[in-house]
Amino acid sequence: MERFSIESVQITSQSFTALENLNVAMGHHANWLKDFIRGLLCNEDHHERDLDENAHHLCQFGQWYDGDGRLLFRNEPLFEDLEDRHKTMHDAARVLMRAHRAGQPVNPQDYDRFMDLAINFQMEARQFQYTLLQRVCAIDQLTGTGNRYAMFHRLIEEKERAGRTEHPCVIALMDLDRFKQVNDEHGHITGDLALKSVSDFLVRSLRKYDSIFRFGGEEFLICLPNTDLKTAEKRLNHLREGLAELDIPTSNGQTIRMTGSFGVGYLRSGFPIQDSIQHVDEALYKAKENGRNRVEVAL
Ligand SMILES: Nc1nc2c(ncn2[C@@H]2O[C@H](COP(=O)(O)OP(=O)(O)OP(=O)(O)O)[C@@H](O)[C@H]2O)c(=O)[nH]1
Prior knowledge:
Layout: H1 13-41, H2 55-58, H3 60-73, H4 79-101, H5 108-137, H6 148-165, E1 170-176, H7 179-186, H8 188-205, E2 211-216, E3 219-224, H9 229-244, E4 248-249, E5 255-256, E6 260-266, H10 273-289, E7 295-297
Parallel strand pairs: 6-7
Antiparallel strand pairs: 1-3, 1-6, 2-3, 4-5
Helix pairs in contact: 1-3, 1-5, 4-5, 7-8
Pfam family, one: CZB
GO molecular function, one term: diguanylate cyclase activity
Protein name: diguanylate cyclase
């Protein structure tokens, strides 16, 4: 779960809005750069705030960074680095501005340094934006687990790793039992809340290098690297029992309980990923046929 957990990116429509705002802030920064150079070339005055030691907090990008950015993306690897680059660039701009205000010609080395910093900052900010977009688009918005795109990405890696290290990787499909009844009896909002509660429970219950993805509707795929089938079956039964005892809140303040059926099997190295999933799906079908709330192994 290290890459797709709620901790790594806070998953709400807030993230999308924050990304849109980042785009706007970066557009402002490009315009600021244009105006700044124009001020130097056309001998026009610059904004007073560019002389401020805190110019990097005062511009639109700085405001995004200190607001949405810090709130939602502070744990991203490029986050701190971006602030350093942004500040250094504004510091370099101040050097040019002071010379310009004093009526002195701009030192070519100072100009080169500033432009290099400005270009690097733009490039890194774009990279940051791209990474965030990739992350946010790999996450199921309702549950915060990875979506199918993230799932295939992960399974390709795990299949390759399992083949290389000869440490088997197990995958499981978990489908909530009689979920339609929950929607019918308690409404879709409770259905959504239940999907969130169940996925949070699964995330909490797995090891940190396991991963979970929303496969569709009320079905989740769990990936257990470095695990043999016997151990996986035991762990999934434990998970199944825990799930059956989970109190799930409804929209009117009550709690309900639910069960899940599981199919489990190896992520087979000599076969396409889709075949392994299909194999596990057949075991899940058997679990449903055999009465639900059980784990069936695909042999
Ligand atoms: N609230 C909510 N319901 C969903 C979502 N995705 C799928 N569903 C519902 O999940 C239900 C799945 O129903 P079925 O496929 O008949 O399965 P089931 O009722 O769980 O029965 P079994 O799988 O046979 O135990 C349907 O009513 C879907 O509308 C979602 O994101 N939110």
